[in-house]
Amino acid sequence: MQNRSIYSSDHELFRENARRFFREELEPNIEQWEKDGIVPKAFWRKAGENGFLCCGVPEEYGGPGADFMYNMVLSEETGYAIGGASVGFSVSADIVAYYLLHAGTEEQKQKWLPKMVTGEVIASIGMTEPGAGSDLKAIRTSAVRDGDEYVINGQKTYITNGQNSDFVLLACVTDPSKGARGISMIIVEADRAGFERGRNLDKIGQKAADTSEMFFQDVRVPVSNLVGNEGEGFAMMMRELPRERITIACRAQAEAQRAFDVTNAYVKERKMFGQALADFQNTQFTLADLKTNLDVGWAYLDQCIKKCNEGELTPEEGAMAKLWTTENEGVVVDKCLQLFGGYGYMTEYPIARMFVDARVRRIYGGASEIMKLVIARSL
Question: CA-CA 20 to 30 A from 297: which of 120, 151, 238, 307?
Answer without folding.
Answer: 238
